Hints:
Order of helices and strands: HHHHHHHHHHHEEHHEEEHEEHEEHEEHEE
Structural class: alpha+beta
Largest sheet: 5 strands, mixed
Mean pLDDT: 82
Strand content: 5-15%
Distance between the termini: 94 Å
Low-confidence stretches: 263-267, 286-292, 307-311, 313-328
Strand order of the largest sheet: 7-6-5-8-9
Radius of gyration: 35 Å
Shape: elongated
Number of strands: 13
Number of helices: 17
Amino acid sequence: MTMHPMTETLGSVRAAINALVEFEPLYVPEPQKRELMRGIASSEAQLAAVRLKVMAVAGDVADEAGAKDVAAWAAADHHVARRDAHADLALAKTFDVRWQATAAALAAGHLHLDQARAIANALEGVRDELGDAKLVEAEEIMLTAAKALDAAALRGLGRDLADTVDPDAADEREAKRLADEEKHAAEKSKLTLNPKGDGTTRVSGLLPDAVAKRLATYLEAFAQPRKQAAESDGRRVPYATLMARALGDLLERVDPARLPDHGGDATTVIVTISLDQLRNDLAAAGIGFDEDSAMTAATARRLACQAFIIPVVLGGESQILDAGRRSRLHGPMQRKMIRLRDKHCRAAGCAVKAEWCEIHHLIPWSMGGKTSVKDGVLLCGHHHHRIHDPAYVHERQPDGSIRFARRT
């Protein structure tokens, strides 16, 4: 079979490279050593350009081997990463139809392969935003910048390429870009809750940036007081743990009156619990009508301080003794008066400021406590959980502070 000139030329190139390999570079003078490294880097770029040209028209190689495409064949034959092979094929196909100036610069050894890829990707990204004349200008700008910038810097320049070339239409492009991002985010959004069977539920999902940022802002508002309280106790709590607890705090503060109807009624959490359980921590409360979802009596009492709930108190054989009214939060004026009076968390030694605190009923709802200024006291999130924790006892001091001690 007659040898194609490209194949013969490659044989000569490989023979020259073999000759280079035989030399010992240690004894090459410094100026020549510098030029050797430059020349080798340039030659590597030129060989890469030739390889891409061959890949662009090598579909028959893949067909002969039964491969999906030439990238799949190259990945298996050359033992390279499939991702890299497919990226090279995409670039090869791109250079086969456009960005001829960039392809020529690579073939001349004036660009490294990574630089050429960064330029091509940037130009592909603005094809729908710029006209033909502006695209030529954009390619010239990128090639000029490549004389001083590496691939990473070129990628950075490429992100604002359309605005650099055509600043007059920047606002219009930004509006379209944001609209596209919001549409994409809405289509990709998802949220799943998977109970693990050990008292925890795995929450995972994908949210639009605006929703995620708003959620983070709300959670951090609850997490910061917890962090302050924990540090006042000499403890450090991981950020992720603080945020998880903050989510619980946030949900407890949601006003059902501002939520859509659920099943024909305003969205409300119903807690079922026996009178003995409520008063003595004998067992657990049920959430709604689902016997598989439970909370401790201590948690039920704490919710009565913080959230809108309907407490359904049961007697023997689950007979309803009383369906209480919603136990709502202290009103705005009551909260202001309590904050003005207490000034900070009233747990002994805790200085978390008033605006970061929650209001606890000194006389529990289960014992007939009322939502009043006299019966309310400021506690940070940490100490509000602790006061309802059966592992601790607490005692109010003469100065109004509350001292905690672990049960022995």
